[in-house]
């Protein structure tokens, strides 16, 4: 069980890093990003938020 909890923590850390990269890119390049790409990045960010929330919920089951 401890191994699975550690695995979830690593996954969540990676997802948070990915989300931060997307947010920083969107913030830095907002005027230069085409609308379609911006929309796609927002969708990806929303999906990452959902996955992070899911990891947090599953992690509570192991703690």
Task: Please specify the SSE layout and strand pairing.
Layout: H1 2-29, H2 35-62
Helix pairs in contact: 1-2
Structural account:
By secondary structure, the protein is an all-alpha fold. 89% of the residues lie in helices and 0% in strands. The chain has one domain. It has helices spanning 2-29, 35-62.
Return residue spans where pLDDT drops below 50 for at least 5 consecutive residues.
none
Tally of domains: 1
Strand content: under 5%
Rounded radius of gyration (Å): 14 Å
- Structural class by secondary-structure content: mainly alpha
The rounded distance between the terminal residues' Cα atoms is 9 Å
Number of contiguous helices? 2
Task: Describe the main β-sheet briefly.
Answer: none
Helix content: over 70%
Oligomeric state as shown: single chain
Summarize this entry quickly.
Helix content is 89%, strand content 0%. It is built from 2 helices and no strands.
List keywords for this structure.
coiled coil, mainly alpha, 63 residues, 2 helices, single chain
């Amino acid at each position: 069980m401890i191994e699975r909890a550690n695995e979830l923590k690593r996954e969540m850390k990676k997802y948070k890093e990915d989300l931060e990269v997307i947010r920083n890119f969107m913030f830095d390049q907002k005027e230069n990003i085409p609308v379609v790409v911006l929309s796609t990045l927002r969708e990806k960010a929303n999906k990452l938020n959902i996955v992070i929330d899911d990891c947090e919920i599953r992690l509570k089951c192991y703690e």
